[in-house]
## 1
Amino acid sequence: MTVTVRSSVGVDVSALLLGANGKVRSDGDFVFFNQPVGPGVVYRHGGGAGDMVDVQTSALPADVDKVAITASLDGSGPATFAGASSLLATIGSDSGTLTFQLTGLSTEAAVVCVEIYRRGDAWKVRAVGQGYDDGLAGLAAAFGVNIDDEPEPPATPPQNYQPAQPNPPMPPPQQSAPAPGYQAPPPGQQNQPYAPPPGVPAQPYQPAPTYQPAQSFPPPQPYQPAAPIPPSSMPQGVPSVQSELFQPIHAEVDGPGIQKQGSKMIRVAVNGETLARAGSMVAYQGDLHFKALGSGGIGRAIQQRLTGEGVPLMQISGRGDLFLANAAADVHVVDLDGTDGLTINGANVLAFDNSLTYNIQRVQGAAGYASNAGFFNCVFSGRGRIAITTHGQPVVLNVDQPTYADPQAAVAWSSSLQTGIKRNDSFGFSRLIGRSTGEGLTLSFQGRGFVIVQPSELPPGGFIGGTGGGQEAGQSGGLLGGLLG
C-alpha cells in the first residue's frame, strides 16, 4: 500500500517500524528523507504533490508489529500545525482507498497520521492524529530513535609526523679468538717469508700466462655529431615552458595534516581518515577513497533539517595528498587544544580532523525569531585542527567589552562566550509602515574570548550548498519558530 500525506504547509513525511514495545528496533527502522529505505518500507519525495511511503507488508520483518506514518513541519512555514489549513493522509491499495483528514491540531509541530498494524494474520489501518510539540526530534525520540548519536571516535588521535631517529654509530670490530691448537710464532719471526712445512718440497714460482684477447677490436671512430633536430611548434615538456607559475610560491606545501595551500585552498596529508565538506575536493594524489556521510548521523540529520544548520560531510580515507577549496573563499586554519570550543556557522566549515566532535546548538535567546540565519551554529570541541572559510579578509574582535555582530557576518567565536540577541530597531510607527535600518537583529557577545567577522553578509550556504538535509540540500535553512522546543 502507499500512504500519501498532503498539507497546505511544508511537511516532512517519515515512517517508523515499531516492535511490540512500541519502539524502533534500531535507528535503521526510521525511514525519512535522509534514510529513505527500510525493510519493507520506502520513502518517496512527492515534488510538491505530497510525500509518499510505500509499505509492502509481506516484506516487513516478523518482529515488526506496526508502521507509523508521520508528518512534521519542515521549517518553511508556520511553527505549529495551528497555521495549517489542511493535513490529509491517503492510503491506497488493491483493496481501495482510505482518506483521513487530521483536524484539531494546535501547538503540535509533528503528528502521527496513520498506523498500519498487525491483527492476527492480517494487517489493518487506523487514523491516529497524535501530535508532538517538539517537532520531528521529539517524535523520533518518543519512539526510541537515538537523535544524539555521535560518529565513532577514532581509535587514536592523529599524531604529528616525527622524523626517524638516525642510526647509532657502528661499534668497532671485535677481534675473534684464535682457533684451538693455534701456535703463535716466536717473537721476532712474525712477517717472515713463507717456508713449507717439513717433508713438503718447495715448488718453484711459475708466473701467470700473458693474457691474450679472444679477438681484436677495430680502433675507435672519431665522434660524429648527431643531425640537428628540426624545430617544433609544440613545447616538449615542462622544462621548455617558462612561467611565474613554476615559482616556489605556487608549489605544493609540505607538512602533516591540514596545511594552507595559498590563501584559498588547503592541502591535507591524509594518513588514515579525515572529514571535509562534501563537494570541496579540487584535486588529490595517492590512494584515497571518498564516502558520503550526510550530516554525520540521524540525530544531526534531524537537527540539520529543522535548523538549516550543519555540515554535509564526506569521509576521506587512505594515504595521499588531498586539496580542498570552497568557491575561492579565503581559507584559515584554527587549532583547538581542548580547553575551549569553537562555535562556527556550518557554511564556513571546510575540513577538520576526525579527533574533533561537533553538535548543533541554538544561540541563547534566539527562540521565537523568524529567521535562523546565524541563530543555529555548529559547536566543535576536542583537540585538533579545523579549516574555515570567509568571504573576504576577516577581522578578529577581542571580546573585552560588550560586542555585537550581524548574524550572517559572524563566522565563528569562542564557545565559552555568552551569546544573545539584541533588537536594534525600535518598534514604532516607522516600522509599521515598512521603514527599517536593515540592522534589526544582532548577535551579542559577552565574556572573554574572540569573534571572527567577515566583510560580507552572505546567508548560510552561500558558498558550496549543503545546509539543510534531504530535498533541501544545497539551500539555506527555513524558519526557526522554536522547532527544537
## 2
Amino acid sequence: MDTTFSALAVFVLAVAVLASATDRRTKPLERRMARLERKVDLLMAHLGVEEEADPRMAEVDALLAQNKKIAAMKIYREVTGAGLAEAKEEIERRMR
C-alpha cells in the first residue's frame, strides 16, 4: 500500500514539475506574440490597410442569431485558430 502511494505521489509530482516547466516557456512566447500582433495592427492602421473579413464570420453571426452559441464558437475557432477561452469571450462579445 505504501509503495503504491509513494509511486503515485512521485508521478503526480513529476507531472506538476513538467507542467510548470512548459508553462514557464509558453508565457514569454505568448507575450512576445501579443507584442508582435499589436505592432502589425499599428502598421496596418498607419498604412490604411484593413484585414479582409473571412466570409465564415457571417456564418458565425447567423448561428448567434439562432442562439447556437457552441456551433458559432466551433466555427470561430476554425476560422481564427483561437483557443477555447478566447473564442468564448469573443462569441459573448459578439452576442451583445
## 3
Amino acid sequence: MEQQEFYRGLAQRVRGLAEKADPLTRRRLQKLAEQYDIKGGNALRPARAVERPLPVPRTRPAASIFSGPGEA
C-alpha cells in the first residue's frame, strides 16, 4: 500500500511541475504522471494511447525527381 501512495504522490508533484512548464515539456510530464497513476493504482486517469497520424500518401513522385538533365 505504501508503494501506491508513493506513486500517487509522484504523479501529483509531476503535474504541479507540468503547470509551470512549456507546452512540449508539459505533455511529457503529463504522460509521466499518467504512468505513475497506473503504478499507484489510480483508475481515475487511465493511460491513453497516443498515435501519430500517418503521412498522406503521394499520388505521384515528387517533382524534384524529374527536374534535371537525367544523370545516371
